[in-house]
Amino acid sequence: MNSTFIVAKREFRSNFDSPVGYVVIMLSLMIVGVIVFRDFWTVNRASVGPLFNYLPWALVLLIVPAVTMRLFAEEKRTGTIELLITMPVRDRDVVMGKYLASMGLIAVLLILTVTYPVTIGRLGHLEKGPIVTGYLGLLLMSSAAISIGLFFSSLTENQIVAFTTTFVSLFALWVLDFIAGALGKLGDYLAFFSFQRHMNPFARGLVDVRHVLFFASITVFFLMLTTRSLESRKWK
Q: What's the structural domain count of the chain?
């Protein structure tokens, strides 16, 4: 466990050693902030609905792919992955450390976005329940998305390839609910894997164990795949 936190601390700091972490956070805050307050002034009603409508898109299409693309791909390109996996650190500790560091960065971003509902709440009445559950849903969804990004980053040495495959995969998982209706019975089965379908109840103030287990299962499954991906290098 100590090894996990050592890796997590190293990776979390590296997010802010380059402009990537700052750029991702600032761009996300600016884009989501404009959308949230534009909707508030247009409708003239205090609501955080736009926050939970658009922030998941930002997480899926920009933030998570950008955060995870370099985690293993860059280590492979520079050759430091070979040094890392030969050290007295288990592969799962490396995977969990990088996962926790990414979750830490996403948590920082989400904490900063709390200023939006706080500001809107001063301009009108807001129910706290949907805000709390909405952020819980965002954390769970981000956890699943990060595990997918880690897996694809572990398969390549190219950060652009890692970003693209993560982006395409998360985009597909998000829009499944939109296209399910056109696929008949198959669509009903595919819609079960839609991130949007499992995220929406949290944004409405509902916490269902089934949705929690869905995101948790995706997270565990892809973290296990990532660990196996690292182990496969030793087999070669």
A: 1
Of the candidates 56, 29, 64, which has an alpha carbon nearest to the alpha carbon of residue 137? 56
Residue 221 has pLDDT above 90, yes or no: yes
Nearest CA-CA partner of 129 in 221, 48, 69, 59: 48
Among the listed residues 193, 108, 96, 200, the one whose alpha carbon sits nearest the alpha carbon of residue 147: 96
| Token digits of residue 51 | 């926050």
- Specify whether the CB–CB gap between 32 and 54 falls below 8 A: yes
**DSSP 8-class letter at 204:** T
Spatial contact of 12 and 101, defined as CB atoms under 8 Å apart: yes
Enclosing domain of residue 163: 2-235
- Cα 143 from chain centre: 5
d(CA 21, CA 24): 5
13 alpha carbon, distance to own chain's centre: 18
What is the tens place of the pLDDT at every residue in 37-79?
Answer: 766 666 556 566 777 877 888 888 888 998 899 888 877 777 6
Q: What is the pLDDT of residues 117-145, one digit of tens each?
A: 887 777 666 677 788 898 999 999 999 99
| HSE-up (13 A, CA, CB side) for residue 116 | 27
